[in-house]
């Protein structure tokens, strides 16, 4: 996604410049870039617009818009050289909570103002800085959000007592197993650097749930966005962030079992016919979008799958435990080349 064109801003651009020539000139003048002319790809991020610049409640449903749309004639007004302060994570969170309360009051007028304390798994840690620039102290504010969006159909809390649903969507047998997996990523998962903007309206448990559902069921982003009551951009932001995060943490685990452990769990049929077998290997190919670079197209094209892929060597013990995953290569590489470049021979003693 193109970055924001405002000088000194590195946020992803969201809002395209308007097509109206007069309004477009006002936008170009507001960002204060000398001799700047906006193209069809030029964008501004949301940090340069006030909350009042966006359309509030839908004229058709009476509810706040899920996706933000600028009002007609809006001109960006928040910049580093202006006197107004840019939006902070805390103010974004407070606005989200206010919107949620208004909708809950609309749906359930009898709901009391007090909200019970959520569990620790449904808390998001947001760091803020209070005080002057000369003397400031970091302060951690615990911002509570319900496990899942207020408008979502699916959430971890909704599946807590339904092991069949958890197994269907994630492959894990029950809720306790899901929490065990989440614990292996804690407490680092409470302070993630997201690929896009910080996610504040989906709890940590639901973010892992979205990632596992994407891996297990291969749901499109639109379907996940509908089920969890969030935008497709948020789904993509969560998935890419968590995939990289899980790799960084779980790649530190040594999954290679000892020879004695392999033989202990070896099925009887293998003990009789292949008692010294250590690992069973095979390659798997994952389809990818065709690269724009011609060299990359050639390297990743698989003559076996007749499409662009990445290829990896997967190994399992006779008992069925995945014990080896090689580096990924372009689909044109042979199985023999992957074995020769790996450390698998030395690992087998």
From TrEMBL:
The keyword Electron transport does not apply. Signal peptide: none annotated. Residues 1-79 form the THAP-type domain. Keywords: DNA-binding, Metal-binding, Zinc, Zinc-finger. Transmembrane segments: none annotated. SUPFAM superfamilies: Glucocorticoid receptor-like (DNA-binding domain). Pfam families: DDE_Tnp_4, HTH_Tnp_4, THAP. Its cofactor is a divalent metal cation. It comes from the Eukaryota. The keyword GTP-binding does not apply. This is THAP-type domain-containing protein. It comes from Parnassius mnemosyne. The lineage of its organism: Eukaryota, Metazoa, Ecdysozoa, Arthropoda, Hexapoda.
């Amino acid at each position: 996604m193109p970055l924001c064109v405002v000088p000194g801003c590195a946020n992803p651009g969201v809002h395209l410049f308007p097509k109206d020539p007069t309004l477009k000139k006002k936008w170009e003048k507001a960002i204060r870039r000398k001799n700047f002319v906006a193209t069809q790809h030029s964008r501004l991020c949301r940090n340069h617009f006030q909350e009042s610049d966006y359309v509030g409640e839908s004229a058709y449903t009476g509810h706040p818009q899920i996706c933000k749309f600028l009002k007609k004639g809006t001109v960006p007004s928040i910049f580093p050289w202006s006197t107004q302060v840019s939006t902070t994570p805390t103010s974004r969170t407070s606005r989200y909570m206010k919107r949620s309360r208004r909708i809950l009051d609309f749906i359930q007028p009898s709901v009391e103002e007090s909200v019970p304390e959520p569990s620790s798994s449904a808390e998001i840690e947001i760091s803020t800085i209070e005080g002057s620039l000369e003397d400031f102290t970091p302060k951690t504010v615990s911002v509570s959000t319900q496990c899942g969006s207020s408008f979502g159909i699916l959430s971890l809390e909704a599946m807590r007592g339904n092991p069949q649903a958890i197994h269907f969507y994630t492959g894990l047998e029950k809720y306790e197993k899901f929490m065990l997996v989440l614990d292996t990523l804690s407490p680092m998962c409470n302070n993630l650097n997201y690929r896009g903007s910080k996610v504040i309206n989906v709890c940590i448990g639901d973010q892992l749930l979205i990632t596992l559902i994407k891996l297990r069921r291969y749901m499109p982003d639109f379907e996940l966005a509908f089920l969890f009551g969030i935008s497709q951009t948020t789904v993509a932001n969560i998935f890419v962030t968590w995939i990289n995060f899980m790799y960084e943490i779980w790649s530190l685990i040594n999954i290679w079992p000892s020879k004695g452990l392999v033989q202990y769990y070896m099925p009887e049929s293998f003990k009789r016919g292949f008692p010294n077998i250590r690992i069973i290997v095979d390659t798997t190919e994952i389809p990818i979008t065709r690269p724009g670079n011609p060299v990359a197209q050639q390297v990743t094209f698989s003559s076996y799958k007749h499409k662009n892929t990445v290829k990896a060597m997967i190994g399992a013990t006779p008992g069925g435990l995945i014990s080896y995953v090689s580096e990924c290569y372009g689909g044109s590489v042979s199985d023999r080349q992957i074995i020769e470049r790996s450390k698998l021979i030395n690992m087998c003693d």
